[in-house]
Amino acid sequence: MIKYSMYVKESSFFHTLDPRTKMIILSSIFGLALLYKDPLYLGTIAVSVLLMIRFLCKIKIRRLATYIRPILPLVFMSLLLWPFFQPTGNIIFEYWKIRVSEDGIRMGLAMTFRIFAIITATFLLLMTTLQRDLILGLMKFKVPYEYCLTLAISLRYVPTLAGITYTIMDAQRSRGLELDKGPIFKRIRNYIPIITPLIIGSIRMAEELAIAIESRGFGYGERTFLKEIFLKKRDYATMLIFILILGIGVYIRVLGYGSMAFI
What we know:
Blueprint: H1 19-35, H2 39-56, H3 61-68, H4 72-81, E1 91-95, E2 98-101, H5 102-128, H6 131-140, H7 145-174, H8 184-190, H9 192-215, H10 233-254
Antiparallel strand pairs: 1-2
């Protein structure tokens, strides 16, 4: 079953925070992940994000795993490919022009932890914030409403298109279409009966969306909102803590820690 939102309803500390506070937290995690290059530091950041999701957000790791599973190939690809592009240091394996070194393995681990930390931090925001509140938070940061609406449509309709795709695939399988059998080029051709109705359905959906937006007066006059968001004392305290953590991280990096000798 396709969900239209990643939001998980819980009564946790993170769920009660203002979306702007969560964006500051996300930016701090991104900054720390991009700041360090040592796998030990990046691994610590990745584990810290998981602990925040489990204990501060009260979201089970099993629930998070359902969203992480599709991006695991990207994570493992980073882990496997990076060592081949960093052949410096002690060579562990060598065949023809292919070299795998200790520095390459460390680099692969570092990039894997970095990608994992950034992705899980993004999930932390999406799983604890309603799409409506996320858009309101962006508008409070003076992001133009047109861009916020584009983001809202993307968050809402990408899962919708995925659901339509699965429905079409099930309908075509019931008619005897075999998507997973035969040579690779035959499999590609078999997806034509999937793509064609998906494109037609997407065009119809776009037309209906355009009519709905137009009927609600998009682009005419100043916008008003049913709900307003306000920063509370805990929001200011949380933002201050994570800004301080980022500042300490920058100071540690300036001292020379968290890097690797060959970078």
